[in-house]
Every structure is written in structure tokens, then in C-alpha cells.
TrEMBL record, chains A, B:
This is Recombination protein RecR. It comes from the Bacteria. A zinc finger (C4-type) spans 58-73. InterPro entries: DNA_Rcmb_RecR (IPR000093), Rcmb_RecR (IPR023627), Rcmb_RecR_Znf (IPR015967), TOPRIM_dom (IPR006171), TOPRIM_RecR (IPR034137). The lineage of its organism: Bacteria, Pseudomonadati, Bacteroidota, Flavobacteriia, Flavobacteriales. It comes from Dokdonia ponticola. Residues 81-176 form the Toprim domain. The gene is recR. Keywords: DNA damage, DNA recombination, DNA repair, Metal-binding, Zinc, Zinc-finger. NCBIfam families: recR.
């Protein structure tokens, strides 16, 4: 791609560093900003800079937060004996939107993935084990995605905490509500049969 | 979507103002920036701000440029009697990448589209007519996309310049090089038959 302007080329280059944004998409986005009033670009740039420079991570659960202790951890009505282990803030948002969970979270910041150079040291695992050691936690719920990396991470954490007096559980895998059985994959369907629940519990 | 941080929410909101970027994609992009070193966000924000605040449009062809007169208009080896009318800078880049065109460009900045509130006044049409009036231009080549808006814009400009001593032409429509005839749409195929060229010219 030959650009008629270095400024344009630079903006497109930086935009295309974002995941899933190629050069063509980046050019489309940048040209859109050029057609809009200058304030839009200013607002975007300021929002990104302010966020990057001043955002904090909750010192207890590592969730993204504007203050030292996030709203969830600071809420006295949440059950501090339940800790749900998730990969990142999006999972916290997804679970919160169900309004079904009243415990706390622990955000790992990723999954163990040797191929990507992510070992246990890169994740917030140590602080989780410390939390369990202190004895306040009664149950650790694993809510990572069920990929090989997710299962590895679950097992690693399980091995770290099993010596302490703590229950461990993992979220249920099964057929999505509203899905047809015939289109489900065998592993999911198999698990949903193995881990069937008493009918009264499902009412 | 419930955000745990106002800063995050604001950054996601501004990002999702870009075309084709929804809230979920915006969140993914913003979280990516949070995982990368701070410098990446700084570079992105600075590149966008510098571009938006200091970029210029060539005073002759309205192409994006770092200086008053763009490289193409300033090049004495380009044929100033040929003017190719295009919609935006991406079309200039596309035509330049073919290395087949040695004339100048005129960037309209859009197409006439009454439904979107874009009339001839919103586009750089007046300066094109003035250019033609001055007499240096011998041929105006229309290279807008062949949509209803593109055809309308072509016809509007044609009506404005036909009284002056200038040739008008439009880029050839036909079967793409490498395409199979059976998969071509009827309009394109029809046009490629109507506007057939002497075989010797295609060698």
C-alpha cells in the first residue's frame, strides 16, 4: 500500500497493530475519523490514554477497577467464602450479567499456555493460593473455557489448593438452553448425561 | 453491558463509535491495549491526534497530503491534461498501485447521495468545474463505483462540464481478469459485449 501522507500511513500502521484489524480496515477507520469532527478523534485518544495510564487492578481479585478495591470485593453483601476463578474481565461481566452468582471473583489474566510462553508465573495464581491458605475461602469454582489450556490451568490450580481445606468445583458443561440435542457435539452431550442432575433441582 | 470501571467503559464507548466496531469488539481491542506495554497505547493515540490535527488536503486535487500540493500534483512528469475523478483517497491508492495511469486525480470526497444528505455542495465538484473552465484539462475520466449514487454523480459532473471543450470518459466495465464467464452477472457481461474492443488492442 502506497500512502500519499506519512501521517496517514503512521495512523493506519498503529491502528493495524490491534488484533483483528488489518491494513485495509485500519485505513477505513482512519478515513472515517478524518471525515468526522476533530473532537471525535480527541475523545477517542483521550479515553484510551486516560484508561491506559490511570486504570487500576483490584488488589484482591485483579479485576479492572477505578479504585484499589473493586466494587464486587468491596460489597459486604457478597459471599467472601466463594471464589470464582475466571480468565479475564469479560468473564466477570458475563457471569455478573446472569445475576446468579453472589460470591467473589479471581481474575487470572489468562490461561497457562506454554506455546504462547504463558506459564503459571505470568498469571495471578500465587495470590489465589495465598487467599485459600488464609482459610476464608470455602469453595473455589473454576469457570475457565473448556479448552486444553483451560483444563491445564484448572488442574494446576487444583493441585496447588487441594492440600488446604477447600472445596473445588467447575461450572456445569451441557446442552445450551434452547439447543436441539441432535446438533450438540458428542463430548458435550456425553458430559450432560454423565453429570445429570435430580429433576427436582432443575425446576 | 455492566463495566467494573468508568475508564474502561468510556474507552470502549469511544472505540465503538468507529464504523463496524461493536461494543464486544471494542472491549476486546481495549483489553488488548491493557495487556500490551503502555507505549503501544501512547503511539496509537499520538498517531491519531497528529494525523487529525495536522493532515492537509492537496489544494489542487483534494487528496490527503502532508503538504499544500500533493506529490502527484507536484510531479512535473504527470500529464496535467488528464483528470481522473474518484471518490476518496483509497481509490487514488488503488489506481496508483496499477502503475497504468500517468495523469492527475480529483478527489470528490464522496458521491451524491440525497438519502444520506450529501448533495453536490458537500463534494469537491465546483473546483473540478473551475479546473475544466481554465482549459488545461483535455479529458475527465470518471472512476466512481458503478452504483446508483456513482452514476448520478458522474451524470451531474458531466452536465456541468459538457459545455466546455473537454472529453469525458468512464473506466471500462467488464469481466474481471481471471473470472469465469458463467459466474458473471448479466449486466457486467452485457456491458463487456457492448463495449468490446478490437482484439489487437488487448494484446
Amino acid at each position: 500500500m502506497e500512502f500519499s501522507s506519512k501521517l496517514l500511513e503512521n495512523a493506519v500502521y498503529e491502528m493495524s497493530q490491534l488484533p483483528g484489524i488489518g491494513k485495509r480496515t485500519a485505513l477505513r477507520l482512519v478515513l472515517h475519523l478524518l471525515r468526522q469532527p476533530e473532537t471525535q478523534t480527541h475523545h477517542l485518544a483521550e479515553a484510551l490514554l486516560t484508561m491506559r495510564d490511570t486504570i487500576k487492578f483490584c488488589e484482591k481479585c485483579h479485576n479492572i477497577s477505578d479504585v484499589e478495591l473493586c466494587e464486587i470485593c468491596a460489597n459486604p453483601n457478597r459471599d467472601a467464602s466463594l471464589v470464582c476463578v475466571v480468565e479475564d474481565v469479560r468473564d466477570v461481566m458475563a457471569i455478573e450479567s446472569t445475576s446468579q452468582y453472589k460470591g467473589l471473583y479471581h481474575v487470572l489474566g489468562g490461561k497457562i499456555s506454554p506455546l504462547d510462553g504463558i506459564g503459571p508465573q505470568e498469571l495471578n495464581i500465587y495470590s489465589l493460593v495465598e487467599k485459600v491458605k488464609e482459610g476464608e475461602v470455602k469453595e473455589v469454582i473454576f469457570a475457565l473455557s473448556s479448552t486444553m489450556e483451560g483444563d491445564t490451568t484448572n488442574f494446576y490450580i487444583y493441585k496447588q489448593v487441594e492440600t488446604y481445606n477447600v472445596q473445588t468445583s467447575t461450572i456445569a458443561r451441557g446442552i445450551s438452553v434452547g439447543d436441539e440435542l441432535e446438533y450438540a457435539d458428542e463430548v458435550t452431550l456425553g458430559r450432560s448425561i454423565l453429570h445429570r442432575i435430580p429433576f427436582e433441582n432443575s425446576l
